């Protein structure tokens, strides 16, 4: 059973050596709140909480699952106590305004904390995670009164929140939302409808649950332009902001899922529940989009989390399990067989996990700095800057969400594979990671939805391909700077090639799409995966650049093996994972009619 | 929830149109037993049993699982009744000798029957499946008395069998087996030890269970050369072959697994259990190898089974679920949105499943003919011919087992992906297929073990690469024959290229391996996957050749859409799946030191 250990050395490498978070923080308006000691305290405090409180509940929470009883939901044993500790530690308010009881620290620290928590116990982490969507919505679109009523409780964590979007007939296609909002004479609304797949929709961790609900006003236009947002609390707040009357929102059942079983996924029935409009009428979907990029970044973290946890489980097993002899001769001559870590193919699996976890972490931490700047712009009321930064982040998020969750799932499966048959047995804890990881490519927009967002919206419609030109020229600049570095030569060469190819593919799709609209869909997932492999290559090259620099300068001698390992893993990534981009490149350029010309009724002649 | 429908049109296409089973059967010594009517009766009888008896138990068996109580194991509700029907139908004896009550039909019919049964309900199919290993061993290595005692019951299915190989400390590396066999004065043996992961090791379906156990005699040499085989029945047979005294083999527990939960996986404790030597002392592992290829072929079927079942689940959902509009314009203008089958990316997923299921089925059916010839040679006592055929099959089996189970798992995951978030919910039945499919790359030799068997044993050591030259020249001959067929032009061209590349890669690894032994391990899985993509391409081209021929000749006009669909799916395979071979080609040729040079202790600096 994997026992989580926070990878603080790697986290600090990224924060201090690769991305210079301390300089970055100095550029933010809340820079006075964050110093080296604070960061250390947060990293170590989070590590302690994750290792000693959350990790021990990971497997037991899966075995027990959540319990539904007549509308009430009980989380697994120990979850309530862990959540109380979370609240007492002030963890929920880390990056929320001091005005509402938070600590006002940069969002990136919250993301890093969430990565640790999510790796230790993803199901647990979903409860406070959903509150963030709710808090962001209220902070940005709520009235002063709404903010004053809900934010202090949500920031403290004593209340939690949800996002109620999906209905039985629609998830991605929110234009089909049917839930109704009837205006009342007192200015409130009666909300009626059924929402499904509501994470943290009902549970016993908090006194109150604040639902953000997508619904239609009576006169609303059809489709996506007729959706409004409502605050529908489980208990209506009293005038002094405390728990009042029970509202008519009830949990009809919780889903039986493949994984993340300790996370309650609720069916919520709104039966003329009292709701309060938040933001402008019919602009609800637009409001949702405001936080889509940061929300998707939060889900991208799941790919890193499961790659990391599965690696932490597989590594000690590979060092201990004895089987056969390495082909190049005995490595453990005194033992009955060699530890399987000495087999090249087992190393290939472990290194895949490690390359994804560390490469993905670098991608997350880099984008977390953009998220910091966005929060800052929002706090400063600088909408223009926010929009500009959001457009930048918007290029990264579908790649990170789509690519990292796909790779996280593969990495979790490699962890099972290292264990052989034992990987299939629950007690070892490896198969749970696969089951938990499987949701990540589905929710918060499937991989296909991310791919269409990337290629259709962000690359073609949004920028006519310019975003790729801009990004690859950034990479090529890096290549120019390091062209004469002997450690980096092969990275520079491979990056140069893939940047050229990335641009070429984009142009070819752009030209093809004029006549063949479907190619945007038929090429999309291959384009997303290609982009992911290319982007992660750049992030590995950046890590290699820092490591080679340290080695050359003789800095951090006590870390020399760490830096050498970084170079080796970067090489592994370029040797073994980056080549997959070529299959995607070839596949995506085939005409879409290869997919569209088979009639629906001819997909099978037997059924 | 996927409801199984036997794909009889596709099965008949392969049997009658592609591989001409009727001519093939005429070459076998038992040809008088098999005619068109018999085959039809078997196909339709198996389809009926699978659709109406096994399929309805698929999901309930997973939910309920098996129950262990003080050494006894109860299978899920309905399994005993289904098994009784299976026995009454005479299904277990289909391809076993008439002398023991079987029907003496070719093994291929048994494989095709197993494919249908396994697709409808893999867990159920494992119980009779394990008996086959046991029967084959007794038939080939047992004394007349042993055959007469066990075979009639096993062939009838009233007794079942197991293969007891794995122990807690070893699975792949059977040289580490510790179970002891102490000779007794009466010529019997006392067997003591613990075996794990014993499929069908204990259950309530049959009156008796016949274990084939790997154990060591007191004077046995160390390692693989000191392993003998023993028959250890749960109940000792009386002199007249009926159920006698209970033997000292007990089921200590059953495993809690990720999937195949209706299949009982037993821990068996042998406590001086009475055993009977079968075959020669210390030659047990050699005997096991006799049936390894056919056993692995049986597991390869699982890849096809789960791709097929997941496709059968995803297809109707994709036709019904409405979401967004196709990029090239409305396809269901009267509906609120288009069915998702109109999105090119959803088609990509469905076609991947279909291409794997049908391409894999073709690979299985072709090799099933080799298996027929092997059984025939064995029945005729022609060891030389058997060995020759086994060497031929031995090239296919690691590719089919490794590649098809990996692709079956991917296909099962695509089925979940088509469902979006609903795929993650148990009630839809799609996630179960993923969990069930996950075992297939682990047992009966992991993908890594298959890859080393292919590249190390079969290609390099066994034939110095000649087997690839032989196989690719067969493909190139096909290409020559179809070079001027307008339907096949692109297949011929792509096949020619990949054959050249396959040969080149093999030669390069062969040359590299002289100095760098580890490359055989470091390249192995990429080599296996490359081989799988190349081989499946050939099997798709063969299907396309038949389909194009029928279209040209105007044969089977009522099937014109079927043939056209075959051509489209073949094109899809070459467009979208075959290109992945290029990533594997590039990855495998990197030097092994990229994997081996990182010290075990430097895989992590945090834990």
TrEMBL record, chains A, B:
| Record's catalysed reaction(s) | 3-(methylsulfanyl)propanoyl-CoA + oxidized [electron-transfer flavoprotein] + H(+) = 3-(methylsulfanyl)acryloyl-CoA + reduced [electron-transfer flavoprotein]
Supply the enzyme class, top level.
oxidoreductase
Q: Where is the Acetyl-CoA dehydrogenase-like C-terminal domain?
A: 473-597
A Pfam family for this UniProt protein?
Answer: Acyl-CoA_dh_1
Gene3D superfamilies in the cross-refs: Acyl-CoA dehydrogenase/oxidase, N-terminal domain, Butyryl-CoA Dehydrogenase, subunit A, domain 2, Butyryl-CoA Dehydrogenase, subunit A, domain 3
Q: SUPFAM superfamilies of this UniProt entry?
A: Acyl-CoA dehydrogenase C-terminal domain-like, Acyl-CoA dehydrogenase NM domain-like
Molecular functions per Gene Ontology: flavin adenine dinucleotide binding; oxidoreductase activity, acting on the CH-CH group of donors
Q: Which residues form the Acyl-CoA dehydrogenase/oxidase N-terminal domain?
A: 39-157
State which Enzyme Commission number(s) the record gives: 1.3.99.41
Q: Which UniProt keywords apply?
A: FAD, Flavoprotein, Oxidoreductase
> Which parts of the sequence belong to the Acyl-CoA dehydrogenase/oxidase C-terminal domain?
282-453
Residue limits of the Acyl-CoA oxidase/dehydrogenase middle domain? 163-272
Output the superkingdom of the source species.
Bacteria
Q: Show the PANTHER family listed in the entry.
A: ACYL-COA DEHYDROGENASE (PTHR42803), BROAD-SPECIFICITY LINEAR ACYL-COA DEHYDROGENASE FADE5 (PTHR42803:SF1)
What does the protein in this record do?
Answer: Involved in the assimilation of dimethylsulphoniopropionate (DMSP), an important compound in the fixation of carbon in marine phytoplankton, by mediating the conversion of 3-(methylthio)propanoyl-CoA (MMPA-CoA) to 3-(methylthio)acryloyl-CoA (MTA-CoA).
Protein name, per record: 3-methylmercaptopropionyl-CoA dehydrogenase
> Which species is this record about?
Acinetobacter qingfengensis
What does the organism's lineage look like at the top? Bacteria, Pseudomonadati, Pseudomonadota, Gammaproteobacteria, Moraxellales
